[in-house]
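Technical appendix A lists one of the benchmark inputs used to test multi-chain prediction within the project. The record comprises two sequence entries:
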Amino acid sequence: MSGRLLEISGLKVHFRTDDGMVRAVDGVDIGVDGGETVCVVGESGCGKTVTAKTVLKLIDMPPGKIVAGSILWQGRDLVPLPPVAMRAIRSKEIGFIFQEPMTSLNPVYTVGDQIAETVRQHEGMSRRAAMDRAAEMLSLVNIPNASRRVHDYPHQFSGGMRQRVMIAMALSCNPKMVIADEPTTALDVTIQAQILDLLNEMKQRLGMAVLLITHAMGVVAETAQRVIVMYAGKVVEEATVHELFARPMHPYTQGLIRSIPRLDLAATEHRRLEAIPGTVPSLLNPPVGCRFAARCRHATAECSAAEPPLREAVPGHKVACIHAEAIAA
Amino acid sequence: MAGSIPASATASAPARPRIGPWEEAWRRFRKHRLAVVSAAVLLMLILAVLVGPFIWRVPIDEIDFTARLQGPSWDHPLGTDDLGQDLLARILYGGRISLAVGFTAMLVAVFLGTFVGAVAGMAGGKLDAALMWLTDLFLSLPQLPLLLLIIYLFRDSLKDVVGPEMGVFILIVAVIGLFNWMPVARLVRAQFFSLREKEFVEAARALGASRLRLVMRHILPNALGPVIVAATIDVAAAIIAESTLSFLGLGFPPDIPTWGRLLFDAKDNLDFAPHWALFPGLAIFLTVVSINFVGDGLRDALDPRRVK
C-alpha cells in the first residue's frame, strides 16, 4: 500500500498505417499505487489495450511508436529501456493477463511446463523446484488436483480453468503489479464472476496492484478502487469508483452508466435501453476540440473550438469537459 | 433415447491416460491403414539393409564367371549380374548407401529450409523479401543439368581429399540437399507468419521470453507438423535423385552398388537378364511409395483440423 508504483504521463502511441498515422493513444496519464486496483474503461478502439500493452512494450514497434510521454515504474522510465532490461521486468515485476485464455497457452506443452518455464527464466530455479512451484501456483488459483493437473495439456482445460492457469502464470514470479487486459471478456457470465473474485483474492493475498482493462461497467463496479474512463485515445474522467458511479461528470461516462441494463427499472417502466448515439471518431485525424462533442447532447460551439483539458473539478475527481459542473448538477 | 442414461458411460473412466499432442497424432496415424502398412514395409527395408549383409554373407564383389547373368536360384535368390556377382548382396549393401543418401540429404534440406524460412518469417520486411527471392531463384533453376555440372566439376577434387566413397557421398548429399530446401523454407516461413501473431506467443513475450526462446520453444514446435510431412517427401525425392545421378553414371563408382548404379549397369542386359534391373527397381519403388504413404498418414495425423 505504499507509494506510486506506476506513473504514466503524457503517453502518446501512434501507429503508422497505409492511410496515415493512427493516434491510438494520444496523451494519457495513469497512476497506480501499490496494492491498488485501477480500472481503465472505454469502448473498443479507445486505446485502452494499447496503453496496457505499451507499459510492457508489447506492441509491435514498428508500426507502433511511443511518440511522447514517460512510463515511470518505481521511478524508472521504461520508455528508453532496451529489450533485455524489459524482459527482466516482464512477469518478474509486472505480470500480464490476456483476454483470450483459449489461445494464450501453447498447445504443445503441459501447463506445468509453461508455468515452470517462466519461473526458471526469472528465478533460475531447478526443473524440479520450478515444477513444484507450478503445482503450488495452480492450487493457489483453485484448480482442483493441482499436483496431477500440472501434467495436463491446455486442451484438457475449460475456458475458465485456462484463465486460471494464465493468472497462475502471470503471478508465478510474484510481480508487484498485474495488468489484466479484459480477462473476463471471453468467458461466460458465471465464470467471469469467479475470475474477478479470484483476481481480488490474489490481490489481497499477495498484496499486489492491479491495472484492469475492461469495457464492462459491471466489472468496474465490482473490482476497482479508482476508475479511469478513456475515449478516443484520451482520458476523459478519473475518480474513485464510488464518486464515479454516484456523480459521473463527463457526458460520456454518464452515457456508459446509463447503458447498463437495469432489471429493477425494466419491471416497472416499459423503456428502451439507452445507448450513446453515433460512433467513435476516426483516430486517423481526430476532430478539433472535444472528441466526444459530435455524440454529446450537451455540446456547444465552445466544445469544438478547443480541446478541454483534464482538470480537477472536485478534489480527487478529474474530468475533461468544460460543462462538467453544469452537467453533473 | 431421451431420459435413459446408460450407467456404464457415466461410470468414471478411471485415471484417463494423459494425451499429449504426439500421442494424439500417433492415435490418428494408426487409423490410416495404408500408412501403417507402409511404415512397416519401410522399417523392414531399413532393417534389411542394416542387418542383411551380416546374415547373407556373400561378398558383393565375388566374381564367378560360371554363374553369369543367372536368374533367381537357391544359391543366388535374386540372380547374378554379368560378372556373376550376387545381386541380393549387392542390393542389400547398396540399399545402405541409397537410404543413407536419402535421409542425410533430407536432413540437409530440412535444416537449411527451416533456417531460411525461420529467419525470413521472423524478420519480415527486406530480409524476408531477399530470402524469398533467393528461394524463387533456386526453384527456377534447371536442377538435373546443374546437378550433373556440379558433380562433374567437383567430384575429382573432393575425391582426392576424403577418398572416393566418402567424397561422392558428401557431394551427392550436399547437392541434393541444396536443391531441395526451398519447399521447406516456404512452408516454415508461412507457418511463422501465422504463428508469431498467435496469442500464446505474445503471452510468452509478456512473460519475459527472449526472441530466440520464442522461436525455439513456442513457434518452431508448433510449425513442425508440416515440416515433418515435407521431410518424408524429401527422403523419397533424394533417393530418386541419387538413383538418377547414379543411373546417368555420375553418382557412385561401379564398385559401390547403389540401387541407381545397379540399374545403370543392368540397362545393357535388359533383354536377356531382366531380373538384374527388376530387383533394384523394385527396391527403389517400394521405398519411395512407402515413404510417400507414411508422409500421407503423417499429414493426416499432424493436421489438427482433422479431428476424427
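Chain B touches chain A through 23 residues (CB under 8 Å). Chain B has a mean pLDDT of 79. Comparable benchmark entries are summarised in Table A2.
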